[in-house]
């Protein structure tokens, strides 16, 4: 499957587009935050970027500038109203950038993505029935780890069953949690600046995230460090290396599937 970054401020419209797109493509949802997107680009090389400009402001110009200057070989499709896209005119007129105006049918977005990627139309399933049958209610898992390799490995294990978000640091995780509420978090313990213990304290101190199940996935097996987080009620503590079956079984057990 072609890898696509889907950038935007997550809402119902973006969720519906994601559900339809993920049936045909390997989609990584990214919050509209420059630092997080830049970090993800260092971990994953997408073949295309999709941007929903709903609720975008002038500060998001940095995202377009980064894509134009650092990743000019990656095609970008912006979805938005004409007045939303007008503020990024300086960048969107370049050959790298494509536009599709809202309101638009989801099938049309899938088809335009395929066209840009050079995928034949007859290879897609974009009928209304197919879009309606896209699995709804998919649960979301957030992975927090400063290791790009670890993030990719765990994402590959979970992505066929869950919507997977990735954060390369504790600070990036908190930024994502300010906009989304995942159903489960896999959290590395040993991270620079803000480690897993501090990150979990922040998660538990936040009213909207305090009840999210958190599983430590780490090579730290120090009894002292394990006991230091037990009062924060992690749902599990898995020591690396953890095999794929154990990770998937843990997610299914906690999420009741």
What is the β-strand count? Answer: 10
Structural class: alpha/beta
Q: How far is it from the N-terminal to the C-terminal residue, by CA?
A: 25 Å
Poorly predicted runs are 125-136
Oligomer: single chain
Radius of gyration: 19 Å
How many helices? The count is 12
**General form:** elongated
- β-strand amount: 15-25%
Q: Helix and strand succession?
A: EHEHEHEHHEHHEHEHEHEHEH
Mean pLDDT: 83
Give the biggest sheet: 5 strands, parallel
Fraction in helix: 40-55%
Order the strands across the largest sheet as they lie in space.
2-1-3-4-5
Structure description:
By secondary structure, the protein is α/β, with parallel strands linked by helices. Helix content is about 40%, strand content about 20%. It has twelve helices and ten strands. The strands form two sheets. It has a five-stranded parallel beta sheet, with helices on both faces. The protein has a five-stranded parallel beta sheet with strand order 7-6-8-9-10, sandwiched between helices. It is elongated.
Concise summary:
This protein is an alpha/beta fold and 257 residues long.
Q: What secondary-structure arrangement, pairings included, does this model have?
A:
Elements: E1 3-7, H1 12-21, E2 26-30, H2 34-43, E3 48-52, H3 61-70, E4 76-80, H4 82-86, H5 89-92, E5 97-101, H6 106-117, H7 128-132, E6 140-144, H8 148-158, E7 163-167, H9 170-177, E8 184-187, H10 196-205, E9 214-218, H11 223-230, E10 236-239, H12 244-255
Parallel strand pairs: 1-2, 1-3, 3-4, 4-5, 6-7, 6-8, 8-9, 9-10
Helix pairs in contact: 1-6, 9-10
